Amino acid sequence: MDYEKIGLLAGIEIHQQLDTKEKLFCRCPTLLRKSGEHTGEYHRYLRATESEMGEIDGAAREEMKRERKFTYYTYDSTCLVENDEEPPAPLNQEALLLSLTIAKMFGMTPIEQVNVMRKLVIDGSNTSGFQRTALVAVHGTLPNGGRIETLCLEEEAAQRVEGETFSVDRLGIPLVEITTSPCMHTPEEVREMAGYLGMVLRSTGKVKRGLGTIRQDVNISIKGGARIEVKGVQELDLVADVVKREAQRQQNLILIRDQLISRGASVQPGPVDVTTLFAGTGSAILKKAKMILAVRLNGFSGLVGTEVQPGRRLGTEMSDYAKICGVGGIFHTDELPAYGITQNEVESLHRTLGTDENDCIVLVAATPKQAHCAAMQVIKRARFALDGVPEETRKMLPEGNSAYMRPLPGAARMYPETDVLPVNVGPSTWDCIALPELLTVRAHRFSTELALDEGLARQIAFSERLPLFERSIAETINPTLAASTILMTLKEIQRDGADISMISDDLFIEVLHAVELGKAAKEAIPEILKMIAKGAGSGEAIKKCAPAVSRDQLHAIITKIVDERAVFVREKGNAALAPLMGVVMAEVRGSSDGKVVSELLRKEIARVSTSR
Amino acid sequence: MEQLQTGDRVNCNYGGTLFNGTYITDRDGKAVIKLDSGYNIGVGRETCRFLERPVPVRRPEISAVQDDSLPCLSIISTGGTIASRIDYRTGAVTSQFDAGDILRAIPGLSGIARYRTTQLYTILSENMTPAIWQELATAVYKEINDGATGVMVTHGTDTMTFSSAAVSFMVDTPVPVIFVGSQRSADRPSSDNTMNALCSATAAVSPLGEVAVVMHESTSDDRCAIHRATRVRKMHTSRRDAFQSIGIPPLGYVDYPSLDVNLSPEAVKRGSCEPAIRPALDESCRLLYFYPGMPPSALPDAGTLHGLVLAGTGLGHVSTEWIPFLKSLADEGTVIMMTSQCLNGRVCDRVYDTGRDLLKIGVIEGADTLPEVALVKLMWVLGNEKDPDKQRLLLSSSLIGECTRRSRHGL
């Protein structure tokens, strides 16, 4: 696809959890828990309040369409602040300094006086009904010449366990939100910039790692389309796909609009009650429903069933709007007869409504309240189709598709957090902030200074276990041994089922020291680490897996093995080396270095061969 | 540099970006600007340039639709946050108060009753005074006489139980008089004000016939407890369920969101008395919280002191050193009443020597009366009854359920 031609513009909003000791507005640890460990729960209702402008925000109003009771899980590691039962503590200084460090790395300008705001969020993910957030810095630059507009420090929301149940362990973990301008023009460029932002963030060594700790929202528009925010892209590899699929969706919506206009299509303003028409229907869903409403879309026939993204039609987009009212979905005549609805029923529907095969009829079946709400949502979405692409916040679906979530939020969602005093960021604070070395620079340094293989250098520099590597080399352990043990051996034994969280950095380094001092062979490292993972100490594990064998003892063992196989050795000559290596290594169980074994073995083979 | 006013449109050249926004205020030497993105930032005043001064938009007056077939409730506001609104210029929460404001803030109220409202005060509850208790009681009495089915008093939570106790002593009420507040600010979507207000309005039209406090029973939005006004205490600085009945179970509950009311058999029923008011108070009373080593010089001068409530240790004690000083106060006519810092349980000054000495000099055992309630009661009794013997009798008996005759074991 020619992205320049379609005028693709994209920007990124990255949310990265910070690895601080305490949360942003309370003194709880930033510890994620398993929901099964919760020690209590409570229930709350949230309602939109009038904003400072005296309006209720559109996005919040949408959330209010459903009456929702939320359940929250609490833990012994959470407090009254997460429960919205105590005023917040002052802004966490560690988090503020870290966010300023990140800002400085992007060449941004700090805000002289940081003011904490309350951003209205009533989807249940914040117990208070708002998220605390503060603008910390503005105007940075990206390698592609694009601009980073803002960097905000905010609190993480509660994690949804299921349905309307949330877990408050995550609530309040500090998060930086970095927003770029719409300065990217191809899906690949978006992916590249997202990767760069992530690399800079990880260079601080103070951000959380693992799935869910970094999330990308992508803003996408094309010429003639509209700004769409796709939320919650967790994997970097999917960023480009999300951009591609959204560009495709907007193109298709524009095509649909052009056809609708050329057909003179229109949307009838209100739904019609057709409950009685389906009194004898064979459709289980319609039979169960207390009310069935029909929405008339004149001139829409065939287009509601048109794909806008792989596997998603305009009808799916309407259905997403309707689901806000709590209905399971909709039926439309482009896909009927089906689902137990017969051709006869479709025809009588057209007759009753005075429509024909040029028109599309959408059916919603639910309780009267839900059905009315859903029908009006369908009408709203159908009207948007006449204009092309509506501005929306969307959520990512697997494979890069997206579904409607809510309208784009407006500025009315924010007002001051009066319980937190503003914080001044003076030149003395800013000037004192030291810039961490970028991971890319560090990787280069590892390969040049430590003579690490380039690939290994990059891998270890970007690894979560970088601190362990740095400590190992500081303790004079061979860099290649340290890097390969961290990157490969640990991974291998984890794959074999070992709980590597049991291997402390101290124990890990003790093992490598033992290897370097010749107390254990390199080959024994996996077995030693596996034993440590089961709870053994390093001394015990080395003794068990690699009992010290002196050079004399080793010589005796090898002599014995070779003598016992004298015929074989004479026959094979030097080719006997490889098979006998295996026998010797099994015997000494990793307590001798392979290099030493091979040297002695070679001598012994020579002795037996020549003794003929 | 032009003087900026709150609400002025400005642009702000900051860090290489030109921002449009609204000037809010000056704070710590910085100009606070609300950017069009919604964020506030504090920046040097010199970075801001005045653009225009918008004409203030008047909020449309929304008149409340009231259902005449519903019972009439009177809402008396003293500065509670039941219908507060955020002032975007300062970030402050301001209390607006007419029926329209309340019904717009809490739409569910209109299904329970129709309302008439009186804004008596707009103060923080720590600024309440006995004189305001008297005004409040007079306003409540007037509403009862004017035929209100029930009265709701919105009140800051800090000293709500002082005011509710005062109204209890001053007013005989045949209808529910419900005190209500909120622990979490009304601007937040999670505020307890909606549920508390709906449950109190429901309690105010219920068969109850006494003064009560209606607030969250637990941290969940599942029901409110109805507390007897003289047996309730704020027991937490911030939690929704801060209000607890001490020594007795609550008078009942209002479930949420069903708004079903359950009253205990011990709750006084609607219509049990004729309305009456006795608002006199003798304000020359003090409440002292005794601590080990507290010097007797902490005691007020006898000449000005008509009544003294002691929050004593344990069963109701102060140090032996205090006895002669208390005796001279009592001899000069100060009425002294003993309560306990334990809050739970009954004063008994007959167990230890100190207690017996206190009784000997004329200290009155406050039974299980809460210290703050004892203070209000003492002011009221001394204000309305001049005969010392009758005063003692009133102070040692339960007038409106402020103390009990038997301590429940709660098992």
End-to-end CA span of chain A = 76 Å
The percent range for helix content of chain A is 25-40%
Oligomerization category of the chains in this entry: heterodimer
Strand element count of chain A: 24
Overall CATH class of the largest domain in chain B: Alpha Beta
Question: What labels would you give this structure?
Answer:
heterodimer, A: 612 residues, alpha+beta, Gyrase A, domain 2, 4 domains, 11-stranded mixed β-sheet, 5-stranded antiparallel β-sheet, 24 strands, 20% strand, B: 411 residues, alpha/beta, SH3 type barrels, Rossmann fold, 3 domains, 8-stranded mixed β-sheet, 26% strand
Written overview of the protein:
The complex is a heterodimer of chains A (612) and B (411). With 612 residues, chain A is of the alpha+beta class. Chain A has 4 domains: 9-227, no CATH class; 260-407, GAD-like domain (Gyrase A, domain 2); 439-545, no CATH class; 551-610. Chain A contains 20 helices and 24 strands. In chain A, strands 1, 4, 6, 7, 8, 11, 12, 13, 21, 22 and 23 form an 11-stranded mixed sheet that branches. In chain A, strands 14, 15, 16, 19 and 20 form a 5-stranded antiparallel sheet that branches. A 4-stranded mixed sheet of chain A has the order 2-3-10-9, with no helix packed on it. Chain A is elongated. Chain B is α/β, with parallel strands linked by helices and 411 residues long. Chain B is globular, with a radius of gyration of 25 Å. The mean pLDDT of chain B is 92. Chain B is built from 8 helices and 23 strands. Chain B has an 8-stranded mixed sheet, sandwiched between helices. The chains are: A alpha+beta (612), B alpha/beta (411). At the A-B interface, strand 2, strand 5, strand 6, strand 7 and strand 8 of A face strand 2, strand 3 and strand 4 of B.
